[in-house]
């Protein structure tokens, strides 16, 4: 399954290797995931950054402070044992030629420089809780911490590699629960989405904790 393969080998020490980045497995489920979330909340096309609009140069210059909910559904990158990835990051649509302003990888330091005012950032990507992806690494010192620096109040992170289709099912269920019952808070909404996945996922195998267990809330999850 392409969702689980290591991706640290795709990067050089300075910039992401654009050619190899482009060859990462496409995650069709992430597109469907974002479209379904947009449908639930009635988002416009301008609010959805897909395909050629999902560029680092656009994301870094866009005023994201107008959004209270921000979702990244993509490959998550952590420091590999070979040390080639300098810091955690989120893969965006790679440019034709990589540059300092846009190499297709939105890194933790770049995220920390953004200006957000989000009640919630959902990171639907692999291993977004760790700083370097290795056992014993300082928890939440990478991507999650960067989003807090940028102004997010709650971040949904994952503790290990995830399956994109199962994750899309979980996150869209989570959003639907919050849409229908906003007063219950994020933590309870996540618990309800997980319970729903356990009950409904017996035939697909998604009831196993490997599919819903990686996710946890960091920050102000009770609201």
Tell me, briefly, the overall form: globular
One letter per element, helices H and strands E, the order comes to HHHEEEEHEHEHHHE
User: What's the arrangement of strands in the largest beta sheet?
Assistant: 1-5-6-7
End-to-end separation: 36 Å
Characterize the largest beta sheet: strand count, sense, and whether it forms a barrel: 4 strands, mixed
Task: Please indicate the percent range of residues in DSSP E strands (runs of 2 or more).
Answer: 5-15%
* Count of all domains: 1
The unreliable regions are 1-8
Total strands: the figure is: 7
Tally of DSSP helical segments: 8
Helix coverage percent: 25-40%
The pLDDT mean sits at 83
Radius of gyration: 16 Å
Secondary structural class: alpha/beta
How are the SSEs placed, and which strands pair?
Elements: H1 18-22, H2 28-41, H3 56-61, E1 69-73, E2 76-77, E3 89-91, E4 105-107, H4 108-112, E5 120-124, H5 143-150, E6 154-158, H6 164-180, H7 186-200, H8 209-212, E7 215-219
What does this structure look like?
There is one protein chain. With 223 residues, the chain is an alpha/beta fold. It has one domain. 33% of the residues lie in helices and 13% in strands. The protein has eight helices and seven strands, in the order H-H-H-E-E-E-E-H-E-H-E-H-H-H-E. A four-stranded mixed sheet has the order 1-5-6-7, with helices on both faces. The chain has a three-stranded antiparallel sheet with strand order 2-3-4. Helix 5 links the parallel strand 5 and strand 6 (154-158). Helix 2 runs parallel beside helix 6 and helix 6 crosses helix 7 (186-200). The protein is globular and about 45 Å long. The model is unreliable at 1-8 (pLDDT under 50).
């Amino acid at each position: 399954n392409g969702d689980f393969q290591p991706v640290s080998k795709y990067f050089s020490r300075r910039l992401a290797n654009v050619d190899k980045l482009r060859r990462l497995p496409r995650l069709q489920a992430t597109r469907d995931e974002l479209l379904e979330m947009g449908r639930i909340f009635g988002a416009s096309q301008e609010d959805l950054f897909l395909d050629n609009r999902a560029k680092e140069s656009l994301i870094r210059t866009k005023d994201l402070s107008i959004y209270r909910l921000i979702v990244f559904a993509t490959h998550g990158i952590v420091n590999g044992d070979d040390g080639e990835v300098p810091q955690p990051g989120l893969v965006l649509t790679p440019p034709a030629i990589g540059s300092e302003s846009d190499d297709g990888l939105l890194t933790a330091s770049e995220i920390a420089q953004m200006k957000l005012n989000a009640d919630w950032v959902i990171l639907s990507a692999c291993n977004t809780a760790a700083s370097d992806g290795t056992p014993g690494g300082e928890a939440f010192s990478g991507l999650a911490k960067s989003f807090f620096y940028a102004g997010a109040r709650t971040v949904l992170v994952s503790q290990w590699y995830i399956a994109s289709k199962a994750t899309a099912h979980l996150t869209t269920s989570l959003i639907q629960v919050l849409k229908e019952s906003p007063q219950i808070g994020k933590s309870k909404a996540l618990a309800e989405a997980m319970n729903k996945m356990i009950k409904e996922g017996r035939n697909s195998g998604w009831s196993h904790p490997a599919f819903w267990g990686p996710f946890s809330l960091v920050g102000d999850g009770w609201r």
